[in-house]
Specification:
Nucleotidyltransferase, domain 5, five-stranded mixed β-sheet, globular
Length: about 150
Amino acid sequence: MGRVMALDLGEKRIGVAISDPTRTIARPLTILPRASRRAVIEALLRLIAEYEVEQVVVGFPRSLSGEEGPQARWVRREAEALARSLPVPIILWDERLSTVTAEAYRAMRGQRRQEPIDAEAAAVILQDYLEAQRVRSGGGEESERPRE
């Protein structure tokens, strides 16, 4: 079983998290600057190969009411573009409050917000996804997918 990677897409940066090989624990990996789409794709391709990633989870920012706003539509378009360029399935996953949760974890550890929190937010998204997959006990439909 290969690893799962998660992305927290932002207009300036992309937070990246990775699972362990057993898909049990998520950890922050890196933050990619959004220099160009090509640079982002090349960096993601390197990470996918290096960590033997089998799927990518993209945080999908629904509103608290569950509706899709402008940011969610933007993320959907970005995920669809990634799906055309990456050799693994892309899964959209509800990320409501992931940054707030990541900030709370930092505060519990006594850390201040000195660095961008994007990779930690991606780890929160990924951990939520991994736990949901375990609850589903090896099957079931995943959240929304831009690519089958």
